[in-house]
């Protein structure tokens, strides 16, 4: 499939919903939602070096069996799943703030994987593992129910055109799977800079019976999520950013 180019202002265009072998662009409703959009990009020398030197330690292979999280990280700790980390700046920042948590991060874009590995080396981080694979398949095959403390999905592709809305990542079937994989009290945090997508996110998350909103509508940006340069530029231009933070209920009402 020939993917739509990422928006210049989108800090994380890989957290989208298209893939090679999928339907052509004129098809409105693909049969399967994926967590990424294929895009071109050049891997820099520094990123390639990080992939070669740090990839064997920090990049996990995709498997169609459940992942032993404690073995993968070499310790027992709460696990945060991040879907689509772009170039990894926010991921590295949050992981450095929260060293007592393990971060399992999905991203298919090789320059982004290399960039995060480079940050891992520069910052001496040990609590990140990367899966260079479609996050939807990771959730389906590798993650047990009630094992995740948190899920972060920051600035997924909004698929602006109405006929492409079914390609958006935040849809009821995936949200149900994500909610099932959270521990009771665990949270799902989404952020977007596209108001119509924020409104759809709020509708979908509110409708999921396993989740409850932590705010009366949209949440204040949590302190752990840094503002990106794209976000700061957008805010200066008067654009909005919407955060949504939902928690898994202890019991379904």
From TrEMBL:
Domain of life: Bacteria
Residues binding substrate, per UniProt: 161, 193, 228-231
Molecular function (Gene Ontology), one example: tRNA (guanine(46)-N7)-methyltransferase activity
Broadest EC class assigned to this enzyme: transferase
GO CC annotation terms, alphabetical: tRNA methyltransferase complex
EC number: 2.1.1.33
Keywords: Methyltransferase, S-adenosyl-L-methionine, Transferase, tRNA processing
Catalytic activity: guanosine(46) in tRNA + S-adenosyl-L-methionine = N(7)-methylguanosine(46) in tRNA + S-adenosyl-L-homocysteine
Short name of one Pfam family: Methyltransf_4
Region Disordered, residue ranges: 1-29
Stretches assigned to coiled coil: none
Binding-site positions, S-adenosyl-L-methionine: 82, 107, 134, 157
UniProt pathway annotation: tRNA modification; N(7)-methylguanine-tRNA biosynthesis
SUPFAM superfamilies for this protein: S-adenosyl-L-methionine-dependent methyltransferases (SSF53335)
Function of the molecule: Catalyzes the formation of N(7)-methylguanine at position 46 (m7G46) in tRNA.
Family from the record: Belongs to the class I-like SAM-binding methyltransferase superfamily. TrmB family.
Record's protein name: tRNA (guanine-N(7)-)-methyltransferase
């Amino acid at each position: 499939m020939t993917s739509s180019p990422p928006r210049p202002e989108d800090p994380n265009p890989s957290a989208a919903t298209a893939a090679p072998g999928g339907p052509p662009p004129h098809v409105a409703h693909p049969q399967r939602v994926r967590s990424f959009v294929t895009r071109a990009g050049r891997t820099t020398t520094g990123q390639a070096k990080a992939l070669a030197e740090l990839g064997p330690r920090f990049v996990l292979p995709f498997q169609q069996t459940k992942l032993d999280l404690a073995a993968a990280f070499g310790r027992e700790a709460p696990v945060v799943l991040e879907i689509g980390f772009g170039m990894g700046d926010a991921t590295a920042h949050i992981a450095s703030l929260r060293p007592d948590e393990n971060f399992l991060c999905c991203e298919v874009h090789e320059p982004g994987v290399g960039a995060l590995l480079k940050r891992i080396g520069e910052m001496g981080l040990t609590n990140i593992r990367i899966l260079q694979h479609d996050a939807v398949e990771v959730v389906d095959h590798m993650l047990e129910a009630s094992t995740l403390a948190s899920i972060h999905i920051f600035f997924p592709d909004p698929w602006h055109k109405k006929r492409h809305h079914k390609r958006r990542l935040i849809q009821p079937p995936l949200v149900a799977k994500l909610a099932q994989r959270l521990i009771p009290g665990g949270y799902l945090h989404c952020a977007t800079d596209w108001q119509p997508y924020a409104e759809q996110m709020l509708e979908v998350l509110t409708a999921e019976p396993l989740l409850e909103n932590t705010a009366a509508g949209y949440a204040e940006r949590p302190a752990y999520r840094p503002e990106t340069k794209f976000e700061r530029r957008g805010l200066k231009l008067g654009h909005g950013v919407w955060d949504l933070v939902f928690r898994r209920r202890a019991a379904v009402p």
